[in-house]
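User: Can you help me understand a structure? I only have the sequence.
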Amino acid sequence: MTASLGRAIGAVVIGTSAGGVEALSVLLPALPATFRSPVFIVLHLPRERPSLLVDIFRPRCARPVREAEDKEPVEDGTVYFAAPDYHLLIEEGPRLALSVDEPVHFSRPSIDVLFESAADLFGPRLLGIILTGGSEDGARGLEAVHRAGGVTVVQQPDTAQVPLMTQSAIKRSPVDLVLPLEEIAALLRTLDSDPS
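Assistant: Let's start by predicting it. Here is the structure, written out as tokens:
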């Protein structure tokens, strides 16, 4: 049986690292074309190279896919990837903000930074998802989503290519759903946008 959130969602944040391209290749094609809320993604990448994520995922996604740019207004239904070597934050507007503050858990962009800023802005209308990865980045951010009343989802650790990130998130705070990747994809197919 497919899990359902039972509420409309105003934004989605996804954090991943090692194994993330493969995991997102399952999830992003599942986003319905009718889902109008924005999706923000941090995938840890080498800082010194341009990201190819938009090129990889644009053909696989029913929604527009782009790399986040500083001070850009958030567009409904768009999937935003954090740029290499910049933290991605969501500000009032909503609009995107890029920061070169110190790395968090050796990572810039940091999942924690994105999730915490999104939790402040979207509160209970936020869906936070932590996927495969080899660091503890994201655990504190997912806790912030939980505290703000948002929905928290973690990939089942034994289905993650590298389970440390998912295990850290589960250990840090209560999680609403712990699911294998295919069931997270099925959940995304049920998403309803929050028009507010």
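Now, to help you interpret it: The two ends are 29 Å apart (CA to CA). The mean pLDDT is 93. Let me know which part you'd like to focus on.
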